[in-house]
Amino acid sequence: MSLRVDPAHAGHVALTTHALRRFGLDQVWWLVTPSNPLKSHGPAPLAERMARARAVMQHPRVRVSDIEVQLGTTYTAETIAALQDRFVHTRFVWLMGADNLAQFDQWKDWRQIMETTPIGIIARPDARLSPLSSRTARIYRGARVPAKQSRSLGHLSGPAWCYLNMPLMPISSTALRSGA
User: Domain coordinates of the chain in residue numbers?
Assistant: First the structure.
């Protein structure tokens, strides 16, 4: 369903195409968000990030969206709930990098997200094993779907999560923002 990007880059494209295939998704929506409550710095202007995301992601099954602006939501749990209300016949999977699993328990209403939405987690180069020992991973260890069953994730109800390792490009949004 979603991948938050700031700024979008080729690593996000690789992650997205991998997720489409491995999780058996019909579409992925890139949510270009107005802000990230867990980040101390503000993002680049929304219009700039939307343009960059559209420039790097050219795939017929990927939609670049500012729907959080349209919905007036700030937090992931609010966004997911609003999307589930709006698209009642759609099954959503939340996609995120493994670095987010490491601090997922800091997200607002994180348990609500885990309980209501299957989550596809893709290991990034800087976060392979440590996220698997995170508080969230420990609490929801019984809801983990084996990687070999990743295509079933979209057919499950929460709590369900699947962790995939994949070779990714050694590029990050942080490095791009800093000019590295």
Answer: 2-170
